[in-house]
């Protein structure tokens, strides 16, 4: 039961393996905008963080420009070839089925079938991830190599799916802090069996929620959500916009946290929020190299959090960004593509950013001119030729406690490592020379 | 009867030749601050744009720190040499006469005459353009080569000019739009026979006025004026300052639009008005190369439009800037120095800037989070691996519709060509997802 | 009895030698936070500038986080070696005594004595300057070479010092100007016999005060103080904060003005005050080369003047900055280390900055559009091909008289030397075209 900031840099050498084991269990589930796969995913998270609340929103609910779609579930789906054998089976890989496919049971020859097949000519071994949420379609996805081997003849396409009035689910956990001001963390749960671009966001956010929930003391309230992308975010905003706008001081959209690529930073619209400042100082101090993307290249729910009128202070820190690695949105983004050590490192970075965010307060000096640091045991009693650099650092930190600079901007302006800066600020506050 | 924005990029391959033919008619007139040459110039414009109103302001009228000068007209002016032949004749080239010369009929020998002669030692073939508006003088201008050939002996200087109470004239056309907000265009009419630094501004602005007046739909009101430099601008400001300050959202001072030099951009005082942004994006997208001048190098009526307390959002786009080409303010700035193709290109750039200015509005999103673009036929129904770049572009444009960014700054921030950006904004507005 | 601005660039070739002679008299005095040496220093200044007021603040006075210390005076202090001879004597060099030493008369052997000796291993010929203001200690400072020669045996340490309720003194002179707005100048008087890092600040500020006091006309009120560092500044702030915050428009902390190093500029916290702008333009125009330091490297009373909540527009212009030259805070910072010519040059720079500061007012144009400069004899009556650069300069200066730009920022924006700019502004004001 540590304080959050104090524990944010503690190592947990097993956590990578633990998160990887969660990934193995979550990977096979058939997630989509709605359906059993999503509920099972949320229930799995709930086992780890019991405080998680699973919300349901009915199909047909209007949310601004959108309508919550019908719930989609799949019993089985397969394609029987001219020889009578199953040539494609949803149970082998749920990417084989076009997302939100209509039910069908139909015999048709190969030429006719081609209109319902999706493959990637330039990645002939990969099954692509394709969906048709808002237009009625049915179809199968397969590797281009497999497609080329399909023989002429009569096929039978069987999709036992149901689209019916049901619910859209999402998970939310709110962990109260000293203030109502919130730190906001979000990831998506709408992708079927893909590892980096789905599972890693879920498992890292789950581990973070467990850690935050166990910490005894933190300043901010934490709001952590697992939602279907886009429609889930729209639903969430339509229910919580006022409170989010009033309270959120910093937030992150989690995605793509498990491959071996360098870290990436994707800024908020203007790139000047507290979340941006914290991300940049943390990456600068924690990793050798990271890539900064343009906001124009965003693609996950930052699209919603940073939309005009919403304007939450949210940015994103990832490893290889979605849409920039070739395995993205194919069957090659699988459990082999991600590494326990890489997920662990992402977890470490996020813990660090969250710890800093929780202490990223603006302080103000209380004295007219410098305080007598000696009285507070912060100044040497003997003045020699050179001012100790530790004293210089304290005086510099004090000199930016003008009520406008947060801890991160004080660290930036005084060139002090952020944890050292926060620790000094805590000491100065204890000595009552800042408030 | 096209809409203004839609027609602003239409080609009019004959317009260069047409403007050049106007230039041939306007070139010989003896323009100055006042007089018949100015009235004839304005009447010529009125033939092309009948809506033009010609204003008269009486000599002696006080305008702030200034007084409208007496009207100046010249019947004839010549210098008879020792041989009895005319060695200089105003009717050959009106630059031969010092601007605003007093009348004189006097015999004097060459030495005495020299005080009344103006030539350029370093441009020995050019007759310089010299004026003395506010101090009584008489004089002749001539090429330095001609001056050197003047023989000793008795000369007779004859200037039949009149300076008397009359009027200062200027032309104005106001074309109402949907809003009272104005786009302001201005050029000067006070130079005698010079082509680039006089005639090109007049003919391009005349062609623009005719085009705008013919367009059926435009958002802004257009205010277009042809005035004598400095005193004309001061007169105009003293009559219209309040309205100009209230309504003008962007404006341009037209000058030097006909030589073969690269385009030049001369910013407003702070360089941050809508006119500056529009000029820069238009030049960037329309021409290979252009030169940016310092505001400190301004020299035409931007001096007045950008004066402290006036502060209109006006800048200038030219070809070779006044005072930077050697033919400037001499008889070498003649009809040979300008080209129909160059005037046409200037006209094209200004049409483009005006079209953009007329659509340069700030938009605001109307939905909480992104709209469902699919419902508006702006999003593919099938989601594959890569988001179509057209969709990315639409989402990026939407994400800057925060009510603060005008179309040009949205185009800059999303790196979209300005016409494409405006067309997308119009579509989004039609779909009611922005307002 | 010249006007301040007019005399600020006048040469006074004797002033360097005069200030150096003052330095010779002031150097030997034993200054500290309090005591006779400080009073004698202030009385010396008073002889030169009789308007100086010497203030006394009682020991024990509480000032925010601080308490004014007891007054410290030294009668004599010496160390007698095993041979019976004085090996260290305060009267030879007051740096030999640890600042604020307790009285003592004690025999002790060399080993025990070592705890009370201070020397610098890496500067074996220098006596270091060491103090212990707020913790009771006694000690001697000596060169490392001397220390190594100390023989084993019994020593007698005699320090006849008194620490008792008394006063802390500082000097202040206020020279009223046309407005209550103030220019603030400060230096410290708490160092014993060191030349560059003590005496030069005192003598340059004394000469400046004499000059300002003799000038007949200046716009601003001048507030000039000589105070013990840190505690003196805290005392001064606690008595004058409101008035300082209300009135000070620019100020400088004077220090280290006598060595042969290049000039240094140490900015205010944000580096954007009028004092910063004036320092930069003056240095740029007056010296070939100068070094800009980070605010993080400040060390004198800028620490107090720029403290959050105090926020005076104060920066510092020095020659070699304190803490950057090896003689700093040792006996090597003596009268040989400083040069009359160097002090004179510093005086010249400060006079120039003060003259500019006194005229650094924002002006506003009074006319609608440009005034008719010809009427005010500021424009040629004959307009030829090129606008005279003097006219261009006047028009450029006018075009930034928008009520927001001070003289210095007008000079910066129009690229005009600052004195020329101020003189032009004065002419334009006399012509009533700006106010």
State the fourth-level CATH superfamily of the largest domain in chain A: Zn peptidases
Structural class of chain A: alpha/beta
CATH architecture of the largest domain in chain A: 3-Layer(aba) Sandwich
| Percent of residues in β-strands of chain A | 15-25%
Average residue pLDDT of chain A:
95
At the third CATH level, what is the topology name of the largest domain in chain A? Aminopeptidase
Question: How far apart lie the N and C ends of chain A?
Answer: 26 Å
Total domain units of chain A: 3
What strand line-up does the widest sheet of chain A have? 1-10-12-11-13-16-14-15
The chain pair with the largest interface is: A-B, 38 and 29 residues
Which parts of chain A are unreliable, with pLDDT below 50 for 5 consecutive residues or more?
A: none
Quaternary structure: homotrimer
As a percent range, the share of helical residues of chain A equals 25-40%
The beta-strand count of chain A equals 18
Please summarize the sheet with the most strands of chain A.
8 strands, mixed
In the CATH scheme, the class of the largest domain in chain A would be Alpha Beta
Computed over alpha carbons, the radius of gyration of chain A is: 25 Å
């Amino acid at each position: 039961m540590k304080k959050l900031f104090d524990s944010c840099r503690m190592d947990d050498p097993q956590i990578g393996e633990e998160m990887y084991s969660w990934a193995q269990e979550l990977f096979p589930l058939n997630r989509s905008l709605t359906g059993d796969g999503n509920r099972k995913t949320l229930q799995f998270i709930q086992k780890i963080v019991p405080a998680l609340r699973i919300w349901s929103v009915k199909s047909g609910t209007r949310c601004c420009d959108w309508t919550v779609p019908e719930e989609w579930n799949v019993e089985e789906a397969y394609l029987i070839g001219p020889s009578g054998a199953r040539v494609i089976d949803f149970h082998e890989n749920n990417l084989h089925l076009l997302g939100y496919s209509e039910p069908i049971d139909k015999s048709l020859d190969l030429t006719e079938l081609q209109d319902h097949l999706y493959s990637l000519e330039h990645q002939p071994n990969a099954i692509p991830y394709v969906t048709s949420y808002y237009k009625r379609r049915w179809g199968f996805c397969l590797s281009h190599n497999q497609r080329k081997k399909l023989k002429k003849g009569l096929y039978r396409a069987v999709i036992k799916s149901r689209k019916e009035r049901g619910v859209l689910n999402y998970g939310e956990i709110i962990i109260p802090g000293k203030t109502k001001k919130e730190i906001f963390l979000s990831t998506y749960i709408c992708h079927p069996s893909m590892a980096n671009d789905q599972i890693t966001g879920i498992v890292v956010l789950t581990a973070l929620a467990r850690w935050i929930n166990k910490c005894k003391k933190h300043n901010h309230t934490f709001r952590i959500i697992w939602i279907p992308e886009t429609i889930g975010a729209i639903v969430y905003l339509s229910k919580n916009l006022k409170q989010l706008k009033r309270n959120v001081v910093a937030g992150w959209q989690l995605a793509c946290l498990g491959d071996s690529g360098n870290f990436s930073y994707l800024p908020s619209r203007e790139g000047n929020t507290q979340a941006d400042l914290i991300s940049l100082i943390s990456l600068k101090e924690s990793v050798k190299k990271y890539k900064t993307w343009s906001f124009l290249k965003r693609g996950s729910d930052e699209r919603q959090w940073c939309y005009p009128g919403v304007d939450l202070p949210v940015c994103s820190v990832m490893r290889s960004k979605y849409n920039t690695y070739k395995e993205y949105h194919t069957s090659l983004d699988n459990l082999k593509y991600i590494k326990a050590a890489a997920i662990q490192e992402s977890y470490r970075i996020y813990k660090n950013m969250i710890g800093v965010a929780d202490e990223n307060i603006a302080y103000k000096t209380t004295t007219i001119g410098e305080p007598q640091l000696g009285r507070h045991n912060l100044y040497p009693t003997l003045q020699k030729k050179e001012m100790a650099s530790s004293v210089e650092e304290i005086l510099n930190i004090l000199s930016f406690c003008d009520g406008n600079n947060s801890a991160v901007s004080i660290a930036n302006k005084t060139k002090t490592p952020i944890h050292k800066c926060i620790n000094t600020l805590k000491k100065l506050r204890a000595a009552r020379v800042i408030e």
